[in-house]
Amino acid sequence: MFDKSTWIRLPRNVLVGHGVLDQAAEAIEELHLRGQPLIVTSPTPYELAGERIEAQFSSWDEEPAVVVVEDASFDAIERVIQRARDVDPGFLIGLGGGKAIDIAKMASDDVGRGFVSVPTVASHDGIVSNRGSVPEEGTRHSVAAEPPLAVVADTEILANAPWELTTAGCADIISNYTAVMDWRLAYRLKNAPYSQYAAALSEMTAEMLVGNADSIRPSLEESSWIVVKALVSSGVAMSIAGSSRPASGAEHLFSHQLDQIAPGRASHGHQVGVGSIMTAYLHGGENGLWREIRNALASIDAPTTAAELDLEDEEVIEALTTAHEIRDRYTILGDGIDETAAREVARQTDVI
Ligand SMILES: NC(=O)C1=CN([C@@H]2O[C@H](COP(=O)(O)OP(=O)(O)OC[C@H]3O[C@@H](n4cnc5c(N)ncnc54)[C@H](OP(=O)(O)O)[C@@H]3O)[C@@H](O)[C@H]2O)C=CC1
Ligand SMILES: O=C(CO)COP(=O)(O)O
Ligand SMILES: [Zn+2]
């Protein structure tokens, strides 16, 4: 068996636009995928788009099987894997937000079938990436998985999704600035594996999103288009790198730690956005990029303070001082930031 860890695996058909949901089966057929589809979804996306997807397979030999998951958990993945073993599908379709898509992604890996991502929210770059992430007992397990074979992102549906989910997706992209800074630091100081192409793509994606921030407005379909393209691009950067490094640095460690300290309080994207303000400050000090990041987040209505994340100041300090323990990934936090320094950075950046 060859070592596939260095292969670059990307989605082949990426459909982004108004009404493309109705082209899902065509995009799938074009990939020569055969057999019964297994749709993995959650309640709201199923209600919004389930019938339209199912109808497209009515002329196929076998109509789709459907499994609706309520929560993102290992139990839910196990249930989907069991269903997939019973159904023996040709491929899986993840229809929904990060919950349904991650579960479809991880189950498809387990049963050795491809999967197609049909996002109904643009909440983070997991909807197109080669990473799966499932919360369990207050922690989050981030694992390597296969990226989707195709992505079908209907901007009409995405534009009608709750605005906070779209701003979370934007913030996840804006955080690429600091992720790349951390990655370069780790490359220089620790000789961490580094890809110039992936870093440049990730940075450019954040720049383009910030450059288009004025066009990112609630219920404006163009906004969803800009955000999804950025999420796809970020996912591609991760696939080129073979890791989440281009899109996940200390700001993500901070967010993962918050998921343990204050589970369910704020979304992934919003947490990494605030983390990015503080880690940019640590990288650049007074005159750094942190103000630009904060202004970009504020301009798209994303949180920039602990209070806007519904967090106590002390929870932010605890997450900052313990974030380096989350995983073996060198960042600007080094082997840990002490409490006085954490308080200083959070105060200087107006996070607390
Ligand atoms: N792979 C990765 O790299 C990453 C993965 N994640 C994972 O992703 C998950 C979080 O993703 P997120 O997308 O926020 O969560 P969900 O999939 O839970 O979606 C968020 C909410 O939006 C609802 N919803 C979905 N689509 C629509 C729509 N079009 N209109 C109105 N409501 C809608 C869902 O309803 P309902 O529950 O009824 O279906 C849910 O209440 C977590 O499991 C997290 O661990 C997070 C970051 C990165
Ligand atoms: O959220 C991600 C990138 O935006 C994935 O990163 P992690 O590997 O830290 O879960
Ligand atoms: Zn992220």
TrEMBL record:
Substrate binds at residues 125, 172, 256. Coiled coil: none annotated. The keyword NADP applies. GO terms for molecular function: glycerol-1-phosphate dehydrogenase [NAD(P)+] activity; metal ion binding. SUPFAM superfamilies: Dehydroquinate synthase-like (SSF56796). It holds the Pfam family Fe-ADH_2. CDD domains: Gro1PDH. Keywords: Cytoplasm, Lipid biosynthesis, Lipid metabolism, Metal-binding, NAD, NADP, Oxidoreductase, Phospholipid biosynthesis, Phospholipid metabolism, Zinc. Pathway: Membrane lipid metabolism; glycerophospholipid metabolism. GO terms for biological process: glycerophospholipid metabolic process; phospholipid biosynthetic process. It is an enzyme of class 1 (oxidoreductase). Glycerol binds at residues 125, 172, 252, 268. Gene3D superfamilies: 3.40.50.1970, Dehydroquinate synthase-like - alpha domain (1.20.1090.10). The keyword Transit peptide does not apply. Binds 1 zinc ion per subunit. Belongs to the glycerol-1-phosphate dehydrogenase family. Catalyzes the NAD(P)H-dependent reduction of dihydroxyacetonephosphate (DHAP or glycerone phosphate) to glycerol 1-phosphate (G1P). The G1P thus generated is used as the glycerophosphate backbone of phospholipids in the cellular membranes of Archaea. This is Glycerol-1-phosphate dehydrogenase [NAD(P)+]. It comes from Natranaeroarchaeum sulfidigenes.
